[in-house]
Specification:
There is one protein chain. 37% of the residues lie in helices and 19% in strands. It has helices at residues 23-34, 46-55, 72-80, 102-108, 120-131; strands at 15-19, 39-43, 60-64, 90-95, 112-116. The protein has a five-stranded parallel beta sheet with strand order 2-1-3-4-5, sandwiched between helices. Helix 1 (23-34) packs across helix 5 (120-131) and helix 3 packs parallel to helix 4 (102-108).
């Protein structure tokens, strides 16, 4: 993860912070992005994600909408407000049984959303699109 501006140089390793209280989802994202050679940093809670964001800003963050506080919407709002000194694209992860709250999604400033369960290609395309790299 980087503290300063992100490089668009495709030779640079990109980083993604996955904030989700499900170890299974964190592992699936790692497996999905492995072939794209994207470094995956994980956080098991909103609090854990905040600590990681205070140290460095990733190239993109994936955050669960429903997890121990702060939830994904709140993390996104805090990141987009500049609280951590820099920002990055944020994609919210929502469970099929707990759909995205459209009003909160819009208010948070999120750059996209993916419904769990997701397939590897959907994850790869979303992350690639947000990072501006080839899938």
């Amino acid at each position: 993860m980087k503290r300063n501006k992100k490089s668009k140089d495709t030779d640079m390793t990109k980083t993604v912070l996955v904030a989700d209280d499900s170890p299974t989802i964190r592992k699936i994202v790692q497996l999905c992005l492995k072939e794209q050679q994207i470094e995956v940093i994980t956080a098991a809670s909103g609090t854990d994600a905040v600590e990681k964001l205070r140290k460095a800003i990733p190239d993109i963050m994936l955050a669960d909408t429903v997890m121990p506080a702060p939830d994904g919407y709140q993390l996104c709002e805090r990141l987009k407000s500049g609280e951590f000194g820099a920002s990055c694209p944020v994609v919210l992860l929502a469970d099929v049984f707990e759909p995205v709250d459209g009003a909160r999604l819009s208010a948070s400033g999120a750059d996209g959303q993916i419904t769990k369960p997701f397939d590897a290609r959907t994850m790869q395309l979303m992350v690639s699109d947000q990072l501006g790299i080839d899938p």
